[in-house]
TrEMBL record:
Domain of life: Eukaryota
Record-given protein name: Actin-like ATPase domain-containing protein
Keywords for this protein: ATP-binding, Nucleotide-binding
UniProt organism field: Talaromyces amestolkiae
Record-level Gene Ontology MF annotations: ATP binding; ATP-dependent protein folding chaperone
Alphabetical list of SUPFAM superfamilies matching this protein: Actin-like ATPase domain
InterPro entries listed in its UniProt record: ATPase_NBD, Hsp_70_fam
């Protein structure tokens, strides 16, 4: 299996002031690899000089040229520990197992993403300097809004933020007032699309009571989220109807399917070719990109030729033209490449509509909005229209710039504060708990004797603080009150484990395979006067009962879980959570 060619990409937009109604999308990106002068996005690829003798510094985006050893797909590696869903591209799982999703030696995914984002940051600041002048830019605080897939795990969200901070975004020496905020891609797309739809004079504008499904079809992921429009005047207001769903089945899956077809059809003649001939950014894959982008517009079947010399080739002439040395791709081939991905997206939409209609008190979902790079596919639009648009009650629309809708929505979120008034929790969150043993209910193997309380206790009971599908507002917090015995030999650093579950019904016990460890929250009691806590002598030792509360904030606009520890009514320190490989505040 070979790396894909439809690279996950980066887009950026900005506004100068709250009075500036025009969003400026950055459409000039450095590098010789772009086809035209103005492009709306730059590929998320990076090449290192240590592995490429002919370059002196890191190359990123369009600066990466065919023949360079480079890395892509790295964004997907930020969420490598997320469980696969039935909607994920199965070839992606095979690629992961075969080692195609690789990293440079001695670099993790966060480091590679940070290196790439450093180039993005420098280019954004250069663009702003041209618009504002250097003296004005130097004293102007900047809010950076990053969009992320809604299916991202908490670890991936925190990793994305850390990579951005390492790259220079957010508060740092010299720019202390800059900030990083995060928003999910479907919500950003909804803000842009619904804002536009409330003022549309062409088509059917949205109105209060409409149920809107946003299908964000990106490069690596597809996110489906439904919203209820609660009002359009004086300002737009909408809320999530049900828990969104998604999968790693974006447009990159088309390229994996294409590589698979080439390998099956031409065998070693294709497989053994160097990556500069067939890899991302090559002339071969650029031709396929154009074919893929235009597929669905013609009503009659046709064939497409891609010039591609290969040696020792003995194949059916319907697949390869020896005279022109060209690969022949039919529309039937393209359907075989597209249909598995399109069908996965349609299944996602069906599931989400069914769930959302149950939540609506009146009416049903009556609008589907396609956004993202793959959302611009005419073949995808026709397939969705055929499935869902057979009656006039369902409007299926594509914004004029579906790729730019997400960054436009993120800019509007920062500019006007437009947001979903309520969201749905995508998973259960909670802590493991020790409770008084319940005879006839709890298993003896989970029991122990609590010397401080003098009672038989059972460990590992889950205390779920917020349920999957539960409605919550921005900066929603959940607080757990903890009592913990402190013996003289114990550390004053206390740890509280945070867990999540994607199951519909939250499990009761910690060892259930559906319970996933998120990380541990550290609370530091160093310097705290222990005499303010209850205590008693046990076997000649003074034992204290530390009582404290850990508050977990979800839905913060910073885009990450936030924590705070308090005791006796006072904040005793900010808490940090340690994920698998890194610690984030």
């Amino acid at each position: 299996m070979l790396p894909d060619s439809a690279l996950i990409s980066v887009r950026a937009a900005y506004v100068n002031s709250i009075d500036d109604v025009d969003l400026c999308i950055i459409n000039t990106w450095p590098g010789t690899g772009r086809d035209t002068e103005n492009v709306l996005k730059t590929p998320s690829t990076i090449a290192y000089p240590e592995e490429n003798k002919k370059i002196g510094t890191r190359r990123w985006g369009f600066g990466v040229e065919p023949g360079h050893k480079f890395y892509s797909w790295t964004k997907l590696l930020l969420d490598k520990n997320a469980p696969l869903t039935k909607y994920d591209d199965p070839i992606l799982e095979q690629a992961t197992k075969s080692g195609i999703l690789q990293l440079p030696a001695n670099k993790d995914a966060v480091t590679v993403v940070a290196d790439y984002l450093t180039g993005i940051y420098d280019h954004i600041m250069l663009t702003l300097e041209k618009q504002l002048t250097e003296p004005v830019l130097r004293v102007s605080p900047i809010e950076f809004w990053f969009t992320m897939p809604a299916i991202w795990s908490d670890q991936a969200q925190a990793a994305t933020r850390e990579a951005a901070q390492r790259a220079g975004f957010g508060s740092r020496p010299g720019r202390p007032l800059d900030a990083i905020n995060m928003i999910t891609e479907p919500e950003a797309a909804a803000i842009a699309a619904l804002t536009r739809s409330t003022t549309d004079i062409v088509g059917v504008p949205v109105k209060a009571g409409d149920g809107v499904l946003v299908c964000d079809c990106g490069g690596g992921t597809v996110d489906i989220t439904t919203y209820l429009v609660t009002e359009t005047q004086p300002t737009l207001a909408f809320e999530e109807l049900c828990t969104g769903i998604g999968g790693k089945c974006g447009s990159t899956a088309l390229d994996r399917n294409f590589y698979k077809l080439m390998s099956e059809r031409f065998g070693p003649a294709f497989d053994k070719l160097p990556m500069k001939r067939k890899g991302p950014g090559s002339t071969f894959m650029s031709c396929f990109e154009r074919i893929k982008r235009n597929f669905g517009h013609n009503s009659e079947d046709t064939t497409h030729d891609i010039e591609f010399p290969m040696r020792s080739l003995e194949v059916d002439p319907q697949y390869y033209d020896d005279d022109d040395q060209a690969v022949i791709i039919s529309d039937e081939d393209l359907r075989d490449i597209f249909d598995p991905v399109v069908n996965q997206i349609i299944d996602l939409i069906k599931t989400q509509i069914k769930d959302a209609n149950k939540e609506m008190e009146h009416g049903t979902i009556n609008r589907i909005i396609l956004v993202g790079g793959f959302g611009d596919s005419e073949y995808l639009r026709k397939a969705i229209k055929k499935t869902f648009g057979s009656n006039e009650k369902m409007a299926i629309t594509v914004p004029s710039n579906p790729q730019g809708a997400i960054v436009q929505g993120a800019a509007l979120r920062g500019l006007h504060g437009i947001r979903a008034t309520a969201r749905r929790c995508r998973r259960h969150y909670g802590f493991d708990w020790d409770l008084k043993f319940r005879e006839g209910i709890d298993d003896e193997k989970h029991s122990y004797w609590d010397r401080y309380r003098g009672q038989k206790t059972v460990a590992g009971i889950m205390k779920w603080m917020i349920k999957k599908g539960e409605k919550y507002n921005e900066d929603y917090s959940m607080t757990v009150n903890i009592c913990s015995s402190h013996w003289p030999s114990y550390s004053l650093n206390r740890y509280t484990n945070l867990y999540a579950s994607d199951l519909m019904e939250a499990p009761e016990r910690i060892e259930n395979p559906g319970v996933k460890y998120i990380g541990r929250i550290k609370s530091d009691f160093t310097g705290v006067d222990l005499n303010q806590f209850d205590s008693k002598f046990i076997d000649g030792e003074m034992v204290y009962e530390l009582s404290y509360s850990v508050k977990v904030v979800i839905g913060a606009q910073e885009g990450i879980l936030k924590f705070e520890t308090t005791s006796k009514g006072k904040v005793i320190g900010k808490s940090s959570i340690t994920f698998a490989k890194a610690s984030y505040y």
